[in-house]
């Protein structure tokens, strides 16, 4: 199932060219045109699902089965010092293409073009608050 307005669906359908890295019945992986770091690869499900909140368990399973193979190929090809796997969901989180996707970003050092950092707010959360939050989250699992 594809969305005719989705750039990733157009890539899967061959309407827009891409540098394909991997493909199977359920998944398509290709080099990101921005190449934040050398080898920056996107892995997408062929089924159009907007974000993690729409992602089915079946789609997730098929997608994540491909991740280790692609990551190992990136490691063998580029010998990076590490690898970030990044996923943004909804505009506020930085999602710009609304077709679920993972970024595999080989890392070559602190100045390789990718910055990942966040605040440490641990002082605002004691054990009781964390326990209460965990219970609330658990009660909403489906």
TrEMBL record:
GO terms for molecular function: catalytic activity. PANTHER family: ADENOSINE 5'-MONOPHOSPHORAMIDASE HNT1, HIT FAMILY PROTEIN 1. This is HIT family protein. A motif (Histidine triad motif) lies at residues 99-103. Residues 7-114 form the HIT domain. SUPFAM superfamilies: HIT-like (SSF54197). Coiled coil: none annotated. CDD domains: HINT_subgroup (cd01277).
